[in-house]
Amino acid sequence: MGTIYVDGKPYEADAKQNLLHACLSLGFDLPYFCWHAALGSVGACRQCAVKEFKDEKDTKGKLVMACMTPAKEETRISIHDPEAVAFRAAIVEGMMLNHPHDCPVCDVGGECHLQDMTVMTGHDYRRTRFEKRTFRNQYLGPFLYHEMNRCIQCYRCVRFYREYAGGNDLNAFGIKNTVYFGRSEDGVLENEFAGNLVEICPTGVFTDKTLRRHYTRKWDLRMAPAICGHCGAGCNITIGERYGLLRRVLTRFNSEVNGYFLCDRGRYGYEFVNSEYRIRAARLDGQPIPADGAAQKLKSLVSGGKAIGIGSPRASLEANFALRTLVGKDRFFAGVADDQWQVITAMVRILQTGPARSASLHDIELSDAVLILGEDVTNSSPRMALNLRQAVRQQPFEIAGKLHIPLWMDDAVREAVQGVKGPLFIAAPGPTRLDDVATKTYRAAPEDVARLGFAVAHEVDPAAPEVLDLPSELRDLVRIIAGALKSAKRPVVISGPSCRTESVIQCAANVAKALCDTGRPAALGFIAPECNSFGLALIEARPLSEAFQVAEDGDSETLIILENDLYRRIPHEFVDGFLGAVKHVIVLDHLSNDTTARAELLLPAGTFAESDGTLISSEGRAQRFFPVFAQQTDVRESWRWLGDPTWSTLDDLLAALAQALPQLAPAVKAAPSSKFRMAGAKIPREPHRYSGLTSITANISVVEPKPPDDPDSALAFSMEGTPDQPPGALQPFFWSPGWNSIQAVNKFQNEIGDEIRGGDPGVRLFESLQSGAYFTTIPAAFARREAEWLVVPIEHIFGSEELSLRAPAVAELAPAPYLAVNAGDAASLHMEEPGGEVEIDLGSIKHRLPLKIVRELPGGIAGIPAGLTPARGAELPAWCRISKAP
Amino acid sequence: MWSLIKTIWNVFLHSFHKRVTIQYPEEKPYMAPRSRARIILSRDPDGGERCVACYLCAIACPVDCIALQATEDKDERRYPEFFRINFSRCIFCGYCEEACPTYAIQLTPDFEMAEYNRQNLVYEKEDLLIDGPGKYPGYNYWRVAGARIAGKDKGEAENEAPPVDLRGLMP
Amino acid sequence: MVPDFEGAMTSPYPIAAIAGILIMVLSLAALLIWVERRLLALWQDRYGPNRVGPFGLLQVVADMIKIFAKEDWLPPFADKAVFIIAPAIIMVTVLLSFAVVPFSPGIIVVDLNIALLFFLGMSSLGVYSIVLAGWASDSKYSLLGGLRAAAQMISYEVFMSLSLMGVVLLAGSFRLSAIVEAQKRLWFIVPQFLGFVLFLIAGVAEARRSPFDLPEAEAELVAGFHSEYSGMKFGMFFVGEYLGVILISSMITVLFFGGWLGPWLPPIVWFLIKMFAFICFFILLRASLPRLRFDQLMSWGWKVMLPLALLNLIVTGAVVVAWR
Predict the structure, then answer these.
(1) ipTM surpasses cut 0.85
(2) Are the Cβ atoms of A105 and B78 closer than 8 angstroms?
């Protein structure tokens, strides 16, 4: 820290940062466009000009760009100097020359950074009489709407898209006054993080296409802090509701988790909440019944004492715990196929007791060497992949450091580094979306991936078990990987459940332990397959197959299935047998699916937008989400349906949870309790400018209803409350006077880009104990079989996840079912040409699938898209016969 | 003191002045064209709905009596899917008209809209929409705005250059 | 002095007198609602209430129905007992004052020998109503209104009584009927013009009428002491104020304008004509004068009116002594 003088007054500022960063951190309103906390400075827009003075006596000063000037000790600047003010006004006037007159029909109107900055600089009158330049728009896929006329050429979009997110199909075209940001031709933007352009673009060039279909201004949204449920990363999101529809998802900054960005599955998967397939009323044998009657029926069915419960990795801790309490802890089973359950519990056990600390997404971003074992991270935990792309920049930063280039000076750093990438090794069954930044890739069957991991562990620490009979070409790879990991300051090992193979997890733990044991602070990044997989494991559910046993033994009359489509988990003949073995099937869910169709009593459960709950992310971070809908119809939170009648609020449930499961006790503190008040009031979910209060329901009755109560949280369904900043976990939206766009988050951080004031939301449950021994069970090497292939699931960001697939925009990008083999294997099937169909015996059924040739797949391995028929419910990996379809 | 007495006397003299009250409803008052009463939604000179559902009237409304939902027709023109004004709350301040960027929402001199049942004061779009342009006969927002709609391509709005040809080689 | 209830003019039928005066005074007060609104309208070139009944006369009835039908709201934060009693006090004290007012020979409840003192005492007690209402409401506006009423009463009560001492000196009695009789030759307005002006001003202040209506100054205090009152409790303050106006007008008539004295017409008619003229004057004051600032009100009372009243007393006393 050092002292800088702003308009004559001394302030403390981080000397390693630039002046814009310092001014914004100090709370000054200094306009900017091209700078972004996550992207650094390039000095392109010239908007953040300030006057810099040589010393105390200098009264003349010179104009500098704050974002390109270091905040050195004793720097003297003036923000309000008339010349600087005039300069900034002139710059914004120039930007507005070609900006169209369409704010009323622009989707960022009212939350537009350009609007904010124009107001901030005082430009309010158009003086030019010349014609405005126009551009044609492009079709960019189902997520983004393109309106190039609005562009102010700040280059933020391409900097994010190409340099930060690693996309290459968005670019800047043209010269001088006609610079165009788009694709070379119409088409879906390929990058999985393209949706962030909505927030990156300072104006409305890229807008949310799903929001456009049910457009609402930011000030009219009732918003709530939520946690994304479409993978295990636990990204913090802000969800917005109006007139009973969920309208959109925005990033909720959390420096430890998702920072400023989300993946497109998280941003656009929300529309399942508005789906026509929603279950909105309780049903008994298919006939709608009133909610109270359904609750009675549930009680009478359970009271026999012979009920068993199937939990869910996509339901909250609270919902699972309520079911566990209802049926008894010995009769509560995990709603996950046994092989996957084994992997999940292994990961949790390793993180609880294991050799290395669990890596937060932020840790992963800062790590300087990465080993990925068995995962296509972009498709299984997308947000983590974006941070892995930043991790490969960490080591080359040293080059810039040697040249004394500050790291925020983005363009100069990239020039200095010249595309050098830090070590990132990927061992996975197939190609991955991070291959372009990988130092080395190794494509092999899950067993071979595990063997590579074990070998790396042994190479790092000879005390680790050795892998015998390793092929010599692999030995070189092992040496390179081990060398890179050993020379790194903050190595991280990433693994996950995509291979459905426990040894892959174990080998990752071994590598981390080997690094830690030899004195390197390695971190372990496990990927949870679903939003609360780790929570379900911590709640001590029994494996699913034991539930089958109980049912077959006739020891249960009633089966309660919580937010779980069993047909996605296990082969359907098993599910049919299971459901047939019990007398009564009770299902709680929010979307109708094959399991709900079999329910005798079907209870409408609230989605994440209608419930309070806690999720345990893959980092082991307990985070609370809050409803944005007030309960209006019969839809209730699962824990309310199942919960003990003595629990009147969420607090009661959490108290019981902490008592019953001490390992989850810290999760209670994930957010302040419902008793929390600021200035004696709850925190408003609605902005103070929320409109239409006396008219929204006037068509039903002109008498305005009282705002609904929220007994479970410290948030209120109204616009009344203090304007002060609530704790991060309760922050419903980011807004500050003069800062209507998402950039308002600046005002909620002590230091720009750093944690939310008062601490980032969430509580970490796992802290490494540095205990445990090496895993010693090394699998045998993969051996391919004649006429049979090992079919592995291939994760797809759009399609493999159950709920987001019910969102129309995501579904549009989901792949059609296919079967992938490499060219050699295709040839052995006599199918050299793509487009033919193959037959595959999966389980007991023959499926016909179009063949896709994927060059990078190892021989003897076939891939089918995870979560989609026929992989849906199938036990994978599995050896299957594949033949050319007749 | 003297001025006080003079004031009292002057006020007393008003006993002999003519009264300015207009005896409504026997006598109808003159309503200036810009007086503020019943709100209408107007159409542009081409007959299309002027309202582009920008929500600015709703946020400007101090009593929050306007609710609407934006949607788009096949011509990519935005319009309100529904547009509701609760006149039992409206204070006829005219802020909505001032906020309206398209001259769609206008206040008219018709103030005779009392009802015995408050519910009858809730007006929906079909009650509000008139067939003419109201007080601003010539204005058409879409001819000014930079957004493209069917029948008005990029570059065809007021003060707009034709769209840039990105494949052109001229500097 | 010993109170003498058996004055010459005390009505032989006290119940009838009480009932008659009560009905007359109360209906007059009710009517004043309409009169005031019509007169204010007249002086503002409007019509005022003219829709309910002939000339809008039934407006009073409509208002009464409305005020009776209104929710009688007790603020949960109020001091309940005091809150309820306060409006009753003003009614009681003003109505009691009317007991000594000689409307005409035979139309008087009690012809008390200390009637003037009784009137002054009762009008001072009336301020308790305001102070207690302001206190009991437990609202800052009400409390400020109550405080203002107390301060105003103290300031104006002093020279109000002093301004009347000239009249007493001239008439040689506190008995109001005797004071009227003493004006047979000359109304006291002539010898006691200064006393009249002082009493008029003090009277307006005592009745808390514009321009001295600071306790309820709606511009700054919402409605001052009765901000929290609704329904008939508010109505009692309302009627109490009009009763005060009638009382002060009656007293001016009695003390300076020869009461019921006058040729041709019956005495009661003369009394009512004179009284009504002053009521109208009160309304004219409201129509024409802006409200005083509070510090001006206080310094005006203590620094101007009190010395003038003392001067008037000394001069009158000297003249009376010299005359003898």
Answers:
(1) yes
(2) yes
